[in-house]
Amino acid sequence: MIKDKMMTTNSLSHSVTLTLKKSLYPIFTTVTILVLWQGAVSLFSVPEFILPGPVAIILELFKLIGLLLYHGWVTMYETVLGLVLAIILALVLSVFVVWHRPVEKMVWPILVFLHTTPKIAIAPLFIIWFGFGALPKIIISLWLAYFPVAIATITGLRDVEPEMIDLSNSMSCTTLQTFLKIRIPNSLPHFFSGLKLGSIVALLGAILGEYVGSDKGLGYIIDMAIHNTDVKMLFADVIVLTILGRLLYWSVCIAERYVISWHVAMRVDDQKMFSA
Amino acid sequence: MTENKHILKSTFKKHEDILYPLFATIGLVLIWQLSIFAFSIPNYLLPGPYVVMKEIYAQAPLLWGHTLVTLYETSLGFILAIAFAIPISVMVVWWKPVEKVVMPLMIFLQTVPKVSIAPLFIIWFGFGHFPKVLISFLLAYFPIVIEMITGMKDIEPEVVDLSKSMSATPLQVFAKIRIPNSLPYFFTGLKLGGLLSLVDAVIGEFMGSMEGLGYLVIYANDRLNTKLLFADLVVLLLLGKLIYSLIEWIEKYSISWHVVMRDKEKLLIAT
Fold first, then answer.
1. Residues of chain A with pLDDT under 50
2. Residue B131 belongs to what H/E stretch?
3. C-alpha distances in Å from residue A13, one per residue of A3, A8, A9, A19
4. Cβ neighbours of A110 in B, within 8 Å
5. Count of CB contacts below 8 A, A vs B?
6. B105, B203, B226 member nearest A120 (Cβ)
């Protein structure tokens, strides 16, 4: 009994040391780089408009936190709205495409073609069409996020193992049943991997839309910081952007974990989840 | 008569994969042109396909010049990214401490929206080609490295065990097992990286430049010259497609022996 308990405590402390050991290297690397950065900036007295040190950036971040949070909220709002619209439209198209074979043959090559082109170049045009408000940014986010989500979902709905389809046919399932019980569950991991990519590009689209023409949002702050050569502010802005991007990505990961925890794909790369 | 119909049908079946998207594209272009006529939409809002084609023809020398600039920046950034990505990823897989030091850093850097760094490069390095090459390099670099590392590590343990039991040296394991296994991943990384390096050369040109297709987008946009903007977009689309197809073509010929290439659909998902 006592020995058992000892064992558990031992293995617990062992796992704790293991985690510590694992995070030791990254922490060490990060600290070294920050110290080198700060040291170089102080030593060579690099002017702040070229490269501020980490300390100055953190101070700036605290000073501007209210401003950055407000603009971050605007960017987040545009991104999430664009992403949600992209999901809805992509799902509608995917179901339609998989249901009708000729539609698939017409739409799929065009989707793949557009997916492999620099779609973002059209962003300035959306500003002409939809003005300087939130709408063009939402549409740019939607436009960028749509393709990865749609392509992944269609692939997932379509590429079911033929044996499964045969089985369901031999058990006289209707097309609807096959769709609900086999195709849709099969498509979910694909959908989420498309959504992860989509969440990244949606944020990118919103930022670029704000950069091209806006008076709000973190992309606008970038534009402002450049015009004032305020590199400190630019760095503070980038930190907030990075955190927002991570938050969005993680929420997709968490949603994935909850929605398809039962799925084979999740059980296999459970440990890969947060490493990407 | 019926025989003729039959032949027509079978030829249609044979070229189905080309004909369907062709019809869809022609249909879209026709609808676009007709709605321009029907609602008499002015050119500065949305030019019709015919006008855009004419503009491409009329502005061909201008577009060509800017295309060369963008292509130069993109390909230089892309080639640099490949040149740096291969040794780094080999080192990471070969040597454990390097992995522990480099990987967290890479993962962190990958999460930074690098587009927001682009303006900084403009401040540091001015309005010339160099900042765009650097942005292209930075964006293409990460997918290639990550894919290559995944490819070299994603090996069935049995294969490594087998080679060890046959007393293969680590170098042999690397050359005969890890590198061949990583090639399809490498090409997936290349496709992603090639596209990103083009996108980011264009974004770099958006932010501060006097040349290139991205500059031309902003130039046309500021003058409400939507005709030119569309002509530019068409050229950009074709350029992106060209780069992508080129990588795909190289992949097809260089690793045609690989298991993965026999199931081409799967690769499409990965990209």
1. 1, 270-276
2. helix B130-153
3. 15, 8, 6, 10
4. 21, 24-25
5. 140
6. B203
| Whether B3 contacts chain A with CB within 8 A | no
Task: Please write the tens of the pLDDT for every residue from B90-138.
Answer: 888 888 777 777 777 777 777 777 777 888 888 888 888 888 898 889 8
**Residue A13 one-letter amino acid:** S
- Written as one letter, the residue type at A233 is M
SS3 A117: coil
User: Chain A contacts of B106, Cβ < 8 Å?
Assistant: none
Q: How far is B167 from chain A (nearest CA, A)?
A: 31
Q: What is the 3-state secondary structure (H, E, C) of B60-129?
A: HHHHHHHHHHHHHHHHHHHHHHHHHHHHHHHHHHHCHHHHHHHHHHHHHHHHCCHHHCHHHHHHHHCCCC
- Determine, for residues B104 and A238 on separate chains, whether the beta-carbon distance falls below 8 Å: no
Question: What is the gyration radius of the CA atoms in chain A, in angstroms?
Answer: 24
If you average pLDDT over residues B193-215, what whole number do you get?
Answer: 85
B22 touches chain A (CB under 8 A): no
Q: Give residue B51's Cα distance to chain centre.
A: 28
ipTM associated with this complex: 0.77
pLDDT category, B159, cuts 50, 70, 90? confident
Fold held by B49-270: MetI-like fold (1.10.3720)
Q: Tell me: the pLDDT tens digits for A164-214?
A: 888 888 888 888 888 888 888 888 888 888 898 899 889 988 998 888 878
Return all residues near B156 (Cβ < 8 A) that are at least 6 apart.
none
| ∠ Cα B59 B243 B233 (to 5°) | 35
Please state, in angstroms and rounded to a whole number, the distance separating the CA atoms of residues A79 and A135: 11
Which DSSP state fits A272? T
Residue in this structure with the two tokens 């309005």, named with its chain if needed:
B127
What top-level class would CATH report for the domain A54-275? Answer: mainly alpha
Beta-carbon count within 10 A of A269 CB = 11
Is a pLDDT exceeding 50 seen at residue B171? yes
Please state the rounded mean pLDDT for residues B202-229. 85
Q: Which of B197, B196, B195 is nearest to B72 (CA)?
A: B197
